[in-house]
TrEMBL record:
Organism in which the protein naturally occurs: Candidatus Lucifugimonas marina
Keyword set includes Oxidoreductase: yes
InterPro entries assigned: AKR, AKR_Detox_Biosynth, Aldo/ket_reductase_CS, NAD(P)_OxRdtase_dom_sf, NADP_OxRdtase_dom
Keywords, sorted A to Z: Oxidoreductase
Span of domain NADP-dependent oxidoreductase: 16-294
GO molecular function: oxidoreductase activity
Alphabetized PROSITE patterns for the sequence: ALDOKETO_REDUCTASE_2
Lineage: Bacteria, Bacillati, Chloroflexota, Dehalococcoidia, SAR202 cluster
Protein's recorded name: Aldo/keto reductase
Length: 306
């Protein structure tokens, strides 16, 4: 699989990153055996960059089980989901290290901006963890462009995790330019728009109560119906090129040179391999122009943090 450099002076990582939110039960509970098989399939397919978080339910624990004997094959990222006080950070990093079964996390990220604690204090605490050898690189998630710039004054940010997909492009106006300016690697999440871009879900679909999408505003009929008109055109375009919706969503994201790696969730080994194979599709400038015409000005409602 292709690799790209994660930020200025960062490591090379695979262009597909396995998003571990579904593996922790965030989109419906799955057996540990299935989750572990999915993780192994992703690694074997070359997508050896894995992203999880403190707040991803059982995700860190199941990853720890899956990575026994294979930790050295993976670039492992997790996130500080709770408050960013020095006390909680100290507790959270130890919990993550224990659950993941490792003595060092490759990429440790702030899950979202928190303004109660000065960012200079938070960055100082993160750099202390790095100096202690508990983390290697520092990243952020769901930050605005301005907050990236404020944070970068107090240390190097190697990565940024914005919500970015064909239907949610607000970060093109703010976050992506800031990352390019700062030399920060972009690793978008929600690349498939919570599977809306897959075409799998149609109006009237009812999600199980343990699936996060049951309460997501983009699946409310008033938003979902207009979005599906665009999705249907995208599915048709992908079909005309011998591909499917999820492959198009991934290839489109990777066609942006600012993007380092796409975070894509999977719940089965087959999905993990399918996602890895999507990275082989290289969209041309003409392809991107045709897709831009289909997308027009449509964007799902989304407010960038900060």
């Amino acid at each position: 699989m292709d690799t790209r450099q994660l930020g200025t002076n960062g490591p090379d990582v695979s262009v597909i990153c396995l998003g571990a939110w579904p593996l922790g039960g965030g989109m419906g509970v799955i057996p540990d055996k299935q989750a572990i098989a999915t993780i192994h399939a992703s690694i074997d397919a070359g997508a050896n960059f894995i992203d999880t978080a403190e707040g991803y339910r059982t995700s860190e624990g199941v990853l720890g089980k899956a990575l026994k004997g294979r930790r050295d094959q993976v670039f492992l990222a997790t996130k500080l989901s709770g408050d960013q006080s020095v006390e909680h950070m100290a507790e959270a990093i130890e919990n993550s290290l224990r659950l993941l079964g490792t003595d060092c996390i490759d990429l440790y990220q702030l899950h979202r901006p928190q303004f109660e604690i000065p960012i200079e204090d938070t960055m100082a605490n993160l750099e202390k963890l790095r100096d202690e050898g508990k983390i290697r690189y520092i990243g952020v998630s769901n930050f605005s462009g301005d907050h990236h710039r404020q944070t970068a004054k107090h240390g190097t940010i190697h990565s940024s995790q914005p919500r970015y997909n064909m239907l949610t492009r607000q970060v093109e106006d703010d976050v992506l330019p800031a990352c390019e300016e700062l030399g920060t690697g972009v690793i978008p999440h929600s690349v498939l728009a919570k599977a809306m871009l897959s075409g799998k879900y149609r109006p009237g679909h009812v999600f199980p109560s343990d699936d996060e999408r049951v309460s997501k505003p983009e699946f409310h009929e008033s938003v979902f119906m207009p979005a599906m008109k665009i999705v249907e055109k995208l599915l048709a375009w992908a079909g005309d090129h011998g591909r499917e919706g999820p492959q198009l969503a991934i290839a489109w994201c990777l066609a942006n040179p600012v993007v380092t790696s796409c975070i894509v969730g999977a719940k089965t080994p087959e999905q993990a391999v399918y996602n890895a194979e999507a990275a082989e599709w290289k969209l041309s400038e003409n392809d991107m122009a045709e897709l831009a015409e289909i997308l027009g000005d449509f964007r799902l409602p989304y407010s960038v943090a900060g």
